[in-house]
Specification:
Helix content: 55-70%
CATH topology: 434 Repressor (Amino-terminal Domain)
Strand content: under 5%
Low-confidence stretches: 70-75
Order of helices and strands: EHHHHHEH
CATH architecture: Orthogonal Bundle
Largest sheet: 2 strands, antiparallel
Shape: globular
């Protein structure tokens, strides 16, 4: 799964936090969050997502997308795959 960067940044801003403040509150490294925001193909671990959601007061589906689900929409019709 991966972070939805725009939605994530908006939610962090609405909570009045910075990424370093969120990282501290969630108990994760700010570099981990920044890395996931910069690299759309970087995987996000479930436990990291859970910690971020607890710190932001949101649900996982609000800030992340499952890769498998996302790939279904990337396929061209008729390619069968």
């Amino acid at each position: 799964m991966k972070i939805r960067p725009l939605v994530f940044r908006i939610l962090v801003s609405e909570k009045g936090m910075t990424i370093p403040e969120l990282a501290d509150k969630a108990g994760v490294l700010a570099e981990c969050i920044y890395g996931n925001l910069r690299d759309p193909d970087r995987s996000l671990r479930w436990d990291t997502l859970w910690r971020l959601c607890q710190a932001l007061g949101c649900e996982p589906h609000e800030i992340a997308v499952l890769r498998e689900y996302e790939r279904d929409f990337d396929r061209e019709p008729g390619n069968g795959g």
